[in-house]
Amino acid sequence: MSWGFDCAVTGGGRGLLLRRGGQSVAELVFGLPGEPVEGWEPDESEARITAVEHGTVRLRHVPDPEGWTTVVSLDNTDSSEQALPPLGMVVTVHDAWIGWAWTSDTEGFVVLAPRDAPGPALLVRVRQGFLRTASGLRAFTPLDRRGDALGDGVALFHLANPAGSLRPFGRHQTTLEFEEVTDLAAVRAVLPGWLPELVVAPGDDLRFETPDQAIVPGPGVRMTTEDTTSVLAGEAGHQEVAVHGVRGVQRLTATFVPPLEPFLAGLVAALKSRRPSGVSSASGAVIAAALARRAVIDPEAALDWLEREDWLARGDLFGPAIAAVVAVESHDEALLEAACDAVLGAEPEVGLGMVATRCWLATLRMGLPPVDLTRVFARATTPEAAFEAALLLNADADLFGPRVHGIVHRFGDGVLPGLPVGLSEADAGLLVALLRFVPEGWPAKAVAAAAAERGSALLLADHAGGQQPGHEGLAWLLLGEIGA
């Protein structure tokens, strides 16, 4: 495929701005230790040279008609082994684009795709060296710890092993190749042929057909063998698996998805140990949604816990959703009418449509006059709220369908291993819910369903592994199952 992107060096040689059609796609900023070498001036290939104790760091760019290559290298100028200083890369994705990344230390990529079309996409692939995401064993950014991942659409990557060292007079080099691909599905061609599906459904095993590689499971993973096949079963959550081969050690993140109903029952039991006034509305919504689907150990106790708080008084979108569940469970017509009034008076924002729809279903179950959904959808003036309304109303796919691609890309099109670049837990759950609303007749329905399944699996694993302190995304994930 022809090269339709262009790159420009920024930030005094430390940055690289990626563009397409004159519009910004993303910016890469390279974290290079040390101070600039005195008297050195950048040229056509070398963008930056710094001096560190016992070494020299170089950043080089090599453009060509079919792509771009960036090389970060560190030379140990000492006769003794030295610890590798930190080498990093911050990726900031611009508004009209999204990012997805997969890393295994010795292999990996960051791919940038448009929000309103399947492609083309820009693939940044490590050809030599080291690439590791700095987010750890979680897929999404905690809402109250967003600084850990630098913000929405921003992620940090290591270009050298943070715990590594360099032999005497040795060189560490990471080479990144930039190329254009048709879409995210095309990125599968660069994955190792032996790599299995790393998102494991409840009750399934992870199987490695790698007779020439040694599999070393991390904590929380059990391994057995069948001839030359390594069979791994893991505790729910994201777990590490090391693969030792000729290229060194690849560290993979395997996602073991928890069974939903038992997971919710355990979570509800933990949340109910606190006073209702001391938990977030999102936590209350999780308990209410679990109660509605009977995924609780003691439904009467869960209902009693919910009834001890005036959720509508909090003035957020979760309040009417919780109140509707409590009203149905307790046959409280006045409470349901109050929930419907709260929905009709709420400011238009994404999520309002699904809460209104749940209230509408509750009125039908209780034999009350249904809430007027047309009044809710008519006030959907923001682009996000209008898109949600279009999904729920099965509007014109030609008009609103392109937006689906951007959401699908946030979850690797449901086919790629890895994680999104800077997506919060709260936004992840909301986006999964929107994907589940894509009407059957829309062309993107199949890929939307696959991406929703992938996003749901990653989010549940985040929570099962204790990686998320808040429950906003999980609440939206459950509320998005309108029939439950």
Class by alpha and beta content: alpha+beta
| Ends distance | 45 Å
**What is the percent of helical residues?**
25-40%
User: Low-confidence parts, pLDDT < 50 over ≥5 residues?
Assistant: none
Q: What is the number of strand segments?
A: 24
Mean pLDDT: 93
Strands across the major sheet, in which order? 4-5-6-7-16-12-11-10-24
Strand proportion, as a percent range, falls in 25-35%
Radius of gyration over all CA atoms, rounded = 25 Å
What's the number of helices? 12
Shape: globular
Characterize the biggest β-sheet: 9 strands, antiparallel
Report on the architecture of this protein.
Helix content is 30%, strand content 29%. It contains twelve helices and 24 strands. It has a nine-stranded antiparallel beta sheet with strand order 4-5-6-7-16-12-11-10-24. Strands 1-2-3-9-14-13 form a six-stranded antiparallel beta sheet, with no helix packed on it. The chain starts with a strand and ends in a 5-residue tail after the last helix.
Summarize the structure.
This protein is an alpha+beta fold and 484 residues long. It has helices spanning 260-271, 281-292, 299-307, 318-330, 333-345, 352-366, 373-378, 383-392, 397-409, 425-436, 445-464, 472-479; strands spanning 5-10, 15-20, 23-31, 35-36, 46-52, 55-64, 67-76, 82-83, 88-93, 97-103, 108-114, 121-128, 132-133, 154-158, 165-166, 171-181, 199-200, 206-209, 214-217, 221-226, 229-234, 237-245, 248-256, 419-420.
